Amino acid sequence: MRYSTQIKPISYLKANAAQILRDIAEQREPMVITQNGEATAVIQDIVSYENNQETLALLKILALGNQQIEQGRVVSAAEGIARIRRRTAANA
Fold first, then answer.
1. What gap in Å lies between CA 29 and CA 38, rounded to an integer?
2. Contact 14/35 with Cβ under 8 angstroms?
3. Each residue of 30-73: pLDDT tens digit?
4. Exposed (0-12), middle (13-18) or buried (19+): which is 29, by Cβ within 10 Å?
5. pTM, whole model, 2 decimals?
6. In degrees, to the nearest 5, what angle opens at C-alpha 48 toward C-alphas 43 and 53?
7. Strand blocks (E) in the chain
């Protein structure tokens, strides 16, 4: 994806908002909006936004897991399974 083709000034957004929204939804490429010659905002379709949010959530979970490993907060698979079975038995 080349962002250089998707950079537009805010005046273009104001004049062509409906068409821009259709294009973004169809092409699934974000658009960078500039104000006074500087990038100030990014517009993207909702599906891409939701996918990015899910990806970020998974990356946070992975980072947390790595942090716990580095801190030595781990148990073997056998111990983990045993703990789950004990909890399940206690709740049954």
1. 20
2. no
3. 999 999 999 999 999 999 999 999 999 999 999 999 999 999 99
4. middle
5. 0.71
6. 100
7. 7-9, 31-35, 38-43
